[in-house]
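SAMPLE LOG
Freezer: B-3
Tube label: C17
Construct: single chain, 392 aa
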Amino acid sequence: MAVMTRPLLNRRLAEFGTTIFAEMSALAARTGSINLGQGFPDTDGPEEIREAAVRALRDGLGNQYPPGPGVPELRRAVADHQREWYGLTYDPDAEVLVTAGATEAIAAALLALVEPGDEVIALEPYYDSYAACVAMAGGTRVPVTLRPHEGAYVLDLDELRAAVTDRTRLILLNTPHNPTGTVLTRAELTAVAELAIERDLLVVTDEVYEHLVFDDAEHVPLASLPGMRERTVTIGSAGKTFSFTGWKVGWITASPELTAAVRSAKQFLTYVSSGPFQYAIAEALRLPAAYFDGLRADLRAKRDLLSEGLAQAGFEVYRPAGTYFVTTDIRPLGADDGFAFCRSLPERAGVVAIPNAVFYDHREAGAPFVRFAFCKKTEVLEEAVNRLKRLA
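STRUCTURE (predicted):
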């Protein structure tokens, strides 16, 4: 029998093994630990939206292939949402595309817009699919590191500018930012916009946490800034806003030309998905402002509960301005290896977290940082805090 000498896995994906989320979730199950690693809620979203999905199923809406760009009801709801919240006007027929969650939107955008050899700038630490999608597109990722400063993570605009070369095709931006919880300010985004225009760059902006901003933070869509609508692909998602992560309903909004380009790639990925759920999310996007206010208030309280508990346990805490993750520094606990710390934490305290180093090209920059999710029931977070006190 002949022996295969060539590796089976495409070399572009060779550096990507099983995700850390799978490893840590399995560790949580094996040890009976509280899983504050993977970012999914432990309760479902609004009951009326779940019932809308049931109604769609029973009425035969979306049970067969929905239209390739997404059902018209959802595309109109997305366009209305962008107009009502941000003053951005999009044609639901030509400038909105429904995807299988934000993950597919990222993949389709990069596969459509990046040629082999193009450079893609991403803020690190970054969501792990960014690196894999850049690799699949044949691009070269160029990380620009957010660094902790005075209790928050900040973007060095000079470093960003220096990262742009003649080979740079686009900037992949994420705000509110996972995993650090940073929300880029209007001034920072204005500087990004000016750079993109000056160097003729596209920007793909992941805004799935748009409604999860706290205190005085403000979410500013990059596409709303002068000169950016025609060069920005904005990615949104229902999972984080409505707590139905398993439905995998996402979307992009962009100019007709950019939308057509992304659709060209997307049609050969899932083609279509989540038919009945699209009708339900169309209703979700039309929920009153009180829903979004309540979501923020609930998560802000949970952020404070977990942040204070982590501080009492001895972590240095970077209280997030957005998302539902809090990043901590483990060095005050006498540790500096996030992987080892997270793998031992279930036995030591019965809690699972994620080492931030997995989100970095520069692993040493993320080595002492660990991420916890607070999108859980209050009683679960209270129990986690009590367990983490063992570390102190």
